[in-house]
Amino acid sequence: MAGYKVGYFVGSLATKSINRLLAKALVKLAPPELQMTEIPFKDLPLYSYDYDANYPPVATEFKNAIAAVDAVLFVTPEYNRSIPGGLKNAIDWASRPYGKNAPIRRHRTTRASCSVIRHGVRRSASPRPSQGRRTREPDSEPRRRARSESNPARCRRRRR
């Protein structure tokens, strides 16, 4: 059976990150058909289109590492309901310049994460509040009655 090469990004740059520990555990638990390799991005400078004409060697190595794998795994924490800045910078390097980007779109990608807080992982993966809710038609009746028409006792209970 042919094996698959899976490259993984650890979103946290900290050496003792719990997401780095998760990545190491995933490597140990991976079936033998998967060859797991970390794609480091720690040494990448901040992306600027000024580099497009003359790529730094570290960025070229980074893009070649992505091109050499069959799938990409993001093992990352959530920072302020988004991905860490270092990982965002790495994605910028991989996706630019237009037409010469690393072939990340042809890769299968997935994300794994762990958090020390109760809802840390769910926040960035959950849909926006407006998704999944029914919206009313613009010309339809208002959803709630005006306060003067509603039951005052019920309003008092809601405010508590």
Can you walk through the features of this model?
This protein is an alpha/beta fold. It has one domain (4-125): 3-Layer(aba) Sandwich (Rossmann fold). It is built from five helices and four strands. It has helices at 18-29, 57-67, 85-95, 120-125, 152-159, and strands at residues 4-10, 34-38, 71-75, 108-112. The protein has a four-stranded parallel sheet. The longest helix has 12 residues, at 18-29. The model is unreliable at 123-137 (pLDDT under 50).
DSSP strand tally: 4
Q: What general form does the structure show?
A: globular
Topology order in helix (H) and strand (E) letters = EHEHEHEHH
Q: Looking across the biggest beta sheet, what order are the strands in?
A: 2-1-3-4
Secondary-structure-derived class: alpha/beta
In total, the number of domains comes to: 1
Strand-residue proportion: 5-15%
Q: What percentage of residues falls in helices of 4 or more residues?
A: 25-40%
What is the overall number of helices? Answer: 5
Going by CATH, the homologous superfamily would be Flavodoxin domain
Distance between the termini: 64 Å
Largest sheet: 4 strands, parallel
Write down the oligomeric state: single chain
Indicate the CATH topology. Rossmann fold
Flag low-confidence runs.
123-137
